[in-house]
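User: Before I run my own analysis I want an independent prediction to cross-check against. Here's the chain; please return only the C-alpha coordinates and, at the end, one sentence I can use as a sanity check.
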Amino acid sequence: MATSDADDTEELGAVVEDETDDVGDASEEPREARRRRRRRFLLIGAAAVSALVIVALVAAGLYVRNLQTTFDDNRNILDLSLDDDSQDRSEEGTLNILLLGSDSRGEGMDTAETKGEDGERSDTMMFVHIPADRSGVYVMSIVRDLWVDIPGEGEGRINSALDLGGYPLVVDTVEELLDTHIDHIGIIDFTGFEDLTTALGGVYVDNPHSFSAGQHNPTFYPEGTIRLQGNDALRYVRERKSFVQGDFMRVQNQQRVVEAIIDRFLSADTLTNPQRVNDAVEGIVPYLTMDEGLDGATVGGYAVEMRGLRSDDVHMFTIPTGDQMVTSGGAYVLQEDENATEVLRRSLRRENLDGFLTYLDARQEAMDEDSWMSFDDAEDEDDQDDGDDQDDGDDQDDGDEQ
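Assistant: C-alpha coordinates:
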Protein backbone atom coordinates (compact mmCIF):
# COMPACT_ATOMS: atom_id res chain seq x y z
CA MET A 1 0.00 0.00 0.00
CA ALA A 2 1.43 3.29 -0.99
CA THR A 3 1.95 5.99 1.68
CA SER A 4 2.03 9.70 1.34
CA ASP A 5 5.07 11.93 2.07
CA ALA A 6 3.33 13.24 5.19
CA ASP A 7 2.81 9.73 6.50
CA ASP A 8 6.46 8.88 5.81
CA THR A 9 7.60 11.94 7.74
CA GLU A 10 5.45 11.09 10.75
CA GLU A 11 6.69 7.53 10.79
CA LEU A 12 10.32 8.63 10.55
CA GLY A 13 9.84 11.10 13.38
CA ALA A 14 8.33 8.39 15.54
CA VAL A 15 11.29 6.10 14.89
CA VAL A 16 13.80 8.83 15.68
CA GLU A 17 11.94 9.70 18.89
CA ASP A 18 11.88 6.09 19.95
CA GLU A 19 15.60 5.70 19.30
CA THR A 20 16.37 8.90 21.17
CA ASP A 21 14.40 7.68 24.17
CA ASP A 22 16.32 4.44 24.06
CA VAL A 23 19.63 6.26 24.07
CA GLY A 24 18.50 8.41 26.98
CA ASP A 25 17.48 5.38 28.96
CA ALA A 26 20.77 3.66 28.24
CA SER A 27 22.84 6.69 29.45
CA GLU A 28 21.00 7.25 32.73
CA GLU A 29 22.83 4.47 34.56
CA PRO A 30 26.42 5.54 33.65
CA ARG A 31 25.65 9.17 34.48
CA GLU A 32 24.38 8.27 37.98
CA ALA A 33 27.41 6.08 38.49
CA ARG A 34 29.64 8.98 37.61
CA ARG A 35 27.82 11.16 40.10
CA ARG A 36 28.32 8.55 42.84
CA ARG A 37 32.03 8.24 42.02
CA ARG A 38 32.40 12.03 42.06
CA ARG A 39 30.76 12.22 45.51
CA ARG A 40 33.06 9.50 46.80
CA PHE A 41 36.11 11.37 45.48
CA LEU A 42 34.89 14.59 47.11
CA LEU A 43 34.29 12.85 50.43
CA ILE A 44 37.72 11.22 50.29
CA GLY A 45 39.32 14.56 49.37
CA ALA A 46 37.53 16.38 52.18
CA ALA A 47 38.58 13.71 54.64
CA ALA A 48 42.18 13.99 53.49
CA VAL A 49 42.15 17.77 53.77
CA SER A 50 40.56 17.54 57.23
CA ALA A 51 43.23 15.08 58.31
CA LEU A 52 45.96 17.38 57.05
CA VAL A 53 44.40 20.34 58.88
CA ILE A 54 44.19 18.33 62.10
CA VAL A 55 47.80 17.24 61.74
CA ALA A 56 48.84 20.83 61.03
CA LEU A 57 46.92 22.11 64.06
CA VAL A 58 48.45 19.46 66.30
CA ALA A 59 51.91 20.28 64.95
CA ALA A 60 51.28 24.00 65.44
CA GLY A 61 50.04 23.37 68.97
CA LEU A 62 53.10 21.30 69.79
CA TYR A 63 55.32 23.96 68.24
CA VAL A 64 53.67 26.74 70.26
CA ARG A 65 53.94 24.72 73.47
CA ASN A 66 57.59 24.06 72.70
CA LEU A 67 58.21 27.79 72.25
CA GLN A 68 56.39 28.54 75.52
CA THR A 69 58.49 25.93 77.32
CA THR A 70 61.67 27.36 75.84
CA PHE A 71 60.57 30.84 76.91
CA ASP A 72 59.69 29.84 80.48
CA ASP A 73 62.77 27.66 81.01
CA ASN A 74 65.24 30.34 79.91
CA ARG A 75 63.75 33.63 81.13
CA ASN A 76 64.96 35.46 84.24
CA ILE A 77 62.20 36.46 86.65
CA LEU A 78 62.16 39.82 88.40
CA ASP A 79 60.74 39.74 91.93
CA LEU A 80 58.48 42.74 91.50
CA SER A 81 54.74 43.22 91.99
CA LEU A 82 53.10 45.63 89.57
CA ASP A 83 49.63 45.49 91.14
CA ASP A 84 48.96 48.83 92.80
CA ASP A 85 46.58 51.78 92.89
CA SER A 86 47.89 53.05 89.54
CA GLN A 87 45.86 50.36 87.76
CA ASP A 88 42.87 52.72 87.81
CA ARG A 89 44.76 55.11 85.52
CA SER A 90 44.49 52.83 82.47
CA GLU A 91 41.48 51.65 80.52
CA GLU A 92 40.65 47.97 80.96
CA GLY A 93 42.34 45.86 78.32
CA THR A 94 45.16 48.26 77.51
CA LEU A 95 48.71 47.01 77.80
CA ASN A 96 51.67 49.12 78.93
CA ILE A 97 55.15 47.62 79.02
CA LEU A 98 58.35 49.27 80.22
CA LEU A 99 61.46 48.08 78.38
CA LEU A 100 64.90 48.83 79.76
CA GLY A 101 68.34 48.16 78.36
CA SER A 102 71.17 46.84 80.51
CA ASP A 103 74.80 46.31 79.67
CA SER A 104 76.08 43.61 81.99
CA ARG A 105 78.47 42.21 79.35
CA GLY A 106 78.01 38.76 80.78
CA GLU A 107 75.90 35.65 80.57
CA GLY A 108 72.65 37.25 81.61
CA MET A 109 72.16 39.52 84.59
CA ASP A 110 73.04 38.65 88.16
CA THR A 111 71.03 39.59 91.24
CA ALA A 112 72.75 42.92 91.84
CA GLU A 113 72.18 44.01 88.28
CA THR A 114 68.56 42.89 88.37
CA LYS A 115 67.93 44.97 91.46
CA GLY A 116 69.79 47.94 90.05
CA GLU A 117 72.51 48.00 92.67
CA ASP A 118 76.15 49.08 92.42
CA GLY A 119 75.36 52.38 90.71
CA GLU A 120 73.73 50.86 87.66
CA ARG A 121 71.72 53.15 85.41
CA SER A 122 69.57 52.24 82.45
CA ASP A 123 70.63 54.22 79.40
CA THR A 124 67.85 52.72 77.26
CA MET A 125 64.23 53.17 78.26
CA MET A 126 61.19 52.53 76.07
CA PHE A 127 57.51 52.75 76.99
CA VAL A 128 55.31 50.45 74.89
CA HIS A 129 51.57 51.10 74.70
CA ILE A 130 49.15 48.64 73.07
CA PRO A 131 45.49 49.74 73.01
CA ALA A 132 42.69 47.44 74.09
CA ASP A 133 41.58 46.78 70.52
CA ARG A 134 45.17 45.73 69.62
CA SER A 135 45.06 48.03 66.61
CA GLY A 136 48.70 49.08 66.89
CA VAL A 137 51.86 49.23 68.95
CA TYR A 138 53.26 52.56 70.14
CA VAL A 139 56.88 52.61 71.27
CA MET A 140 58.11 55.78 72.94
CA SER A 141 61.79 56.26 73.77
CA ILE A 142 62.54 58.20 76.96
CA VAL A 143 65.88 60.02 76.86
CA ARG A 144 68.09 59.27 79.83
CA ASP A 145 68.85 62.94 80.66
CA LEU A 146 65.19 63.92 81.16
CA TRP A 147 64.90 65.83 84.46
CA VAL A 148 61.88 64.51 86.37
CA ASP A 149 60.41 64.08 89.82
CA ILE A 150 61.57 60.78 91.29
CA PRO A 151 59.07 59.65 93.95
CA GLY A 152 60.56 60.01 97.43
CA GLU A 153 63.91 61.23 96.08
CA GLY A 154 63.22 64.68 94.60
CA GLU A 155 64.33 65.75 91.14
CA GLY A 156 66.89 63.91 89.09
CA ARG A 157 67.73 62.34 85.76
CA ILE A 158 65.19 59.68 84.96
CA ASN A 159 67.89 57.07 84.47
CA SER A 160 69.17 57.64 88.02
CA ALA A 161 65.99 56.10 89.48
CA LEU A 162 67.47 52.64 88.96
CA ASP A 163 70.46 53.45 91.14
CA LEU A 164 68.32 55.18 93.78
CA GLY A 165 65.64 52.56 94.24
CA GLY A 166 65.97 49.70 91.79
CA TYR A 167 63.37 48.68 89.27
CA PRO A 168 60.38 49.38 91.55
CA LEU A 169 61.39 53.04 91.65
CA VAL A 170 61.94 53.11 87.88
CA VAL A 171 58.38 51.84 87.39
CA ASP A 172 56.97 54.35 89.89
CA THR A 173 58.87 57.20 88.22
CA VAL A 174 57.55 56.41 84.73
CA GLU A 175 54.02 55.86 86.04
CA GLU A 176 54.07 59.28 87.73
CA LEU A 177 55.61 60.95 84.69
CA LEU A 178 52.93 59.60 82.32
CA ASP A 179 50.08 59.29 84.83
CA THR A 180 49.48 55.71 83.76
CA HIS A 181 49.99 52.13 84.91
CA ILE A 182 52.78 49.74 83.91
CA ASP A 183 51.48 46.20 83.35
CA HIS A 184 54.80 44.51 82.61
CA ILE A 185 58.49 45.26 82.71
CA GLY A 186 61.25 43.72 80.62
CA ILE A 187 65.00 44.25 80.88
CA ILE A 188 67.24 43.14 78.05
CA ASP A 189 70.96 42.66 78.32
CA PHE A 190 72.46 44.33 75.26
CA THR A 191 74.33 41.13 74.54
CA GLY A 192 70.95 39.75 73.55
CA PHE A 193 70.94 42.11 70.59
CA GLU A 194 73.90 40.24 69.18
CA ASP A 195 72.28 36.81 69.41
CA LEU A 196 68.87 38.01 68.24
CA THR A 197 70.13 39.74 65.11
CA THR A 198 72.31 36.72 64.36
CA ALA A 199 69.38 34.32 64.78
CA LEU A 200 67.34 36.44 62.37
CA GLY A 201 70.11 36.35 59.79
CA GLY A 202 70.83 40.07 60.17
CA VAL A 203 68.55 43.10 59.99
CA TYR A 204 68.52 46.04 57.60
CA VAL A 205 68.27 49.70 58.59
CA ASP A 206 68.36 52.96 56.66
CA ASN A 207 71.26 54.77 58.28
CA PRO A 208 70.83 58.56 57.79
CA HIS A 209 74.42 59.58 58.63
CA SER A 210 77.73 57.77 58.36
CA PHE A 211 79.67 57.34 61.61
CA SER A 212 82.13 55.07 63.41
CA ALA A 213 81.62 53.33 66.76
CA GLY A 214 84.03 51.63 69.10
CA GLN A 215 87.42 52.73 70.40
CA HIS A 216 89.23 49.51 69.54
CA ASN A 217 88.87 48.31 65.96
CA PRO A 218 86.03 50.75 65.31
CA THR A 219 83.15 49.75 63.10
CA PHE A 220 82.21 52.12 60.28
CA TYR A 221 78.54 52.53 59.35
CA PRO A 222 78.07 54.18 55.95
CA GLU A 223 75.06 56.27 55.02
CA GLY A 224 72.24 54.33 53.37
CA THR A 225 70.80 50.85 53.83
CA ILE A 226 73.11 48.73 55.96
CA ARG A 227 72.95 45.20 57.36
CA LEU A 228 73.47 44.78 61.10
CA GLN A 229 74.29 41.56 62.86
CA GLY A 230 76.03 40.50 66.05
CA ASN A 231 78.53 42.94 67.54
CA ASP A 232 77.96 45.45 64.75
CA ALA A 233 74.31 45.70 65.82
CA LEU A 234 75.31 46.11 69.47
CA ARG A 235 77.73 48.91 68.69
CA TYR A 236 75.14 50.63 66.53
CA VAL A 237 72.53 50.86 69.31
CA ARG A 238 75.01 51.94 71.98
CA GLU A 239 76.90 54.73 70.18
CA ARG A 240 76.18 58.36 71.08
CA LYS A 241 79.52 60.19 71.25
CA SER A 242 79.81 60.34 67.47
CA PHE A 243 76.74 62.57 67.19
CA VAL A 244 76.19 66.24 67.86
CA GLN A 245 72.71 65.31 69.07
CA GLY A 246 74.16 62.74 71.42
CA ASP A 247 71.49 60.67 73.14
CA PHE A 248 68.72 61.84 70.78
CA MET A 249 70.48 60.24 67.83
CA ARG A 250 71.22 57.13 69.86
CA VAL A 251 67.56 56.56 70.73
CA GLN A 252 66.66 57.13 67.08
CA ASN A 253 69.19 54.48 66.06
CA GLN A 254 67.75 52.15 68.68
CA GLN A 255 64.30 52.74 67.21
CA ARG A 256 65.62 51.95 63.74
CA VAL A 257 67.03 48.64 64.92
CA VAL A 258 63.84 47.72 66.79
CA GLU A 259 61.81 48.49 63.65
CA ALA A 260 64.23 46.41 61.59
CA ILE A 261 63.92 43.49 64.01
CA ILE A 262 60.12 43.68 63.83
CA ASP A 263 60.24 43.85 60.02
CA ARG A 264 62.54 40.86 59.90
CA PHE A 265 60.59 38.84 62.45
CA LEU A 266 57.24 39.48 60.73
CA SER A 267 58.62 38.71 57.28
CA ALA A 268 57.47 35.61 55.44
CA ASP A 269 61.04 34.29 55.48
CA THR A 270 60.94 34.16 59.28
CA LEU A 271 57.31 33.26 60.02
CA THR A 272 57.44 30.32 57.60
CA ASN A 273 60.71 29.10 59.09
CA PRO A 274 60.02 27.49 62.49
CA GLN A 275 63.71 26.90 63.10
CA ARG A 276 64.49 30.59 62.66
CA VAL A 277 61.69 31.56 65.05
CA ASN A 278 62.93 29.02 67.60
CA ASP A 279 66.52 30.24 67.23
CA ALA A 280 65.36 33.83 67.79
CA VAL A 281 63.51 32.87 70.97
CA GLU A 282 66.40 30.79 72.26
CA GLY A 283 68.85 33.53 71.38
CA ILE A 284 67.11 36.41 73.15
CA VAL A 285 65.27 34.91 76.15
CA PRO A 286 68.35 34.08 78.27
CA TYR A 287 69.19 37.79 78.19
CA LEU A 288 65.71 38.87 79.26
CA THR A 289 64.56 39.60 82.77
CA MET A 290 60.85 40.24 83.29
CA ASP A 291 58.09 40.29 85.85
CA GLU A 292 56.59 36.96 86.83
CA GLY A 293 53.33 37.66 85.01
CA LEU A 294 55.03 37.86 81.62
CA ASP A 295 55.34 34.10 81.08
CA GLY A 296 55.21 32.05 77.89
CA ALA A 297 51.44 31.53 77.97
CA THR A 298 50.80 35.25 78.48
CA VAL A 299 53.19 36.23 75.69
CA GLY A 300 51.58 33.63 73.43
CA GLY A 301 48.14 35.06 74.21
CA TYR A 302 49.30 38.56 73.35
CA ALA A 303 50.78 37.24 70.10
CA VAL A 304 47.46 35.70 69.12
CA GLU A 305 45.62 38.94 69.91
CA MET A 306 48.04 40.90 67.73
CA ARG A 307 48.44 38.34 64.94
CA GLY A 308 46.94 40.76 62.40
CA LEU A 309 49.50 43.51 63.05
CA ARG A 310 52.28 44.27 60.61
CA SER A 311 55.35 46.46 60.83
CA ASP A 312 53.38 49.47 59.52
CA ASP A 313 51.21 49.24 62.64
CA VAL A 314 54.20 49.86 64.91
CA HIS A 315 54.71 53.57 65.66
CA MET A 316 57.95 54.78 67.22
CA PHE A 317 58.67 58.22 68.61
CA THR A 318 60.62 60.02 71.33
CA ILE A 319 59.08 61.73 74.33
CA PRO A 320 59.01 65.52 73.84
CA THR A 321 61.49 67.44 75.95
CA GLY A 322 61.85 71.05 76.99
CA ASP A 323 64.85 73.33 77.21
CA GLN A 324 68.28 72.25 78.27
CA MET A 325 69.48 73.39 81.67
CA VAL A 326 72.53 73.02 83.88
CA THR A 327 72.11 71.49 87.34
CA SER A 328 73.81 72.81 90.47
CA GLY A 329 76.37 70.05 89.97
CA GLY A 330 77.20 71.33 86.48
CA ALA A 331 75.44 68.57 84.55
CA TYR A 332 73.47 69.25 81.39
CA VAL A 333 69.94 67.87 81.54
CA LEU A 334 66.67 68.28 79.66
CA GLN A 335 63.60 69.73 81.29
CA GLU A 336 60.14 68.32 80.75
CA ASP A 337 57.98 69.81 78.03
CA GLU A 338 55.06 70.34 80.38
CA ASN A 339 52.47 71.15 77.71
CA ALA A 340 53.32 68.20 75.49
CA THR A 341 53.58 65.85 78.47
CA GLU A 342 50.10 66.82 79.61
CA VAL A 343 48.73 66.14 76.11
CA LEU A 344 50.50 62.78 76.21
CA ARG A 345 48.88 61.89 79.53
CA ARG A 346 45.42 62.75 78.23
CA SER A 347 46.05 60.78 75.06
CA LEU A 348 47.01 57.70 77.06
CA ARG A 349 43.90 57.98 79.21
CA ARG A 350 41.72 58.35 76.12
CA GLU A 351 43.43 55.60 74.11
CA ASN A 352 44.33 58.12 71.43
CA LEU A 353 48.06 58.03 70.76
CA ASP A 354 47.33 58.48 67.06
CA GLY A 355 45.95 61.89 68.02
CA PHE A 356 49.08 62.61 70.04
CA LEU A 357 51.34 61.79 67.10
CA THR A 358 49.24 64.07 64.91
CA TYR A 359 49.62 66.78 67.54
CA LEU A 360 53.41 66.33 67.55
CA ASP A 361 53.59 66.57 63.76
CA ALA A 362 51.44 69.72 63.69
CA ARG A 363 53.45 71.29 66.48
CA GLN A 364 56.74 70.54 64.75
CA GLU A 365 55.43 71.98 61.51
CA ALA A 366 54.34 75.15 63.32
CA MET A 367 57.72 75.41 65.06
CA ASP A 368 59.54 75.04 61.76
CA GLU A 369 57.42 77.78 60.22
CA ASP A 370 57.97 80.07 63.23
CA SER A 371 61.71 79.48 63.09
CA TRP A 372 61.77 80.32 59.38
CA MET A 373 59.79 83.53 60.00
CA SER A 374 62.08 84.51 62.84
CA PHE A 375 65.07 83.97 60.60
CA ASP A 376 63.53 86.17 57.89
CA ASP A 377 62.69 88.88 60.44
CA ALA A 378 66.20 88.80 61.84
CA GLU A 379 67.72 89.08 58.39
CA ASP A 380 65.42 91.90 57.31
CA GLU A 381 65.52 93.95 60.49
CA ASP A 382 69.11 93.09 61.49
CA ASP A 383 67.85 92.26 64.98
CA GLN A 384 71.00 91.54 66.99
CA ASP A 385 69.09 90.15 69.96
CA ASP A 386 67.63 87.33 67.89
CA GLY A 387 71.07 86.51 66.57
CA ASP A 388 72.53 86.39 70.10
CA ASP A 389 69.78 84.01 71.19
CA GLN A 390 70.67 81.69 68.34
CA ASP A 391 74.33 81.77 69.35
CA ASP A 392 73.47 80.97 72.96
CA GLY A 393 71.63 77.88 71.79
CA ASP A 394 74.69 76.74 69.88
CA ASP A 395 76.90 77.27 72.92
CA GLN A 396 74.59 75.12 75.01
CA ASP A 397 74.77 72.34 72.47
CA ASP A 398 78.56 72.48 72.59
CA GLY A 399 78.50 72.39 76.36
CA ASP A 400 76.32 69.31 76.32
CA GLU A 401 78.86 67.47 74.25
CA GLN A 402 81.60 68.33 76.67
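Sanity check: The chain has a mean pLDDT of 78.
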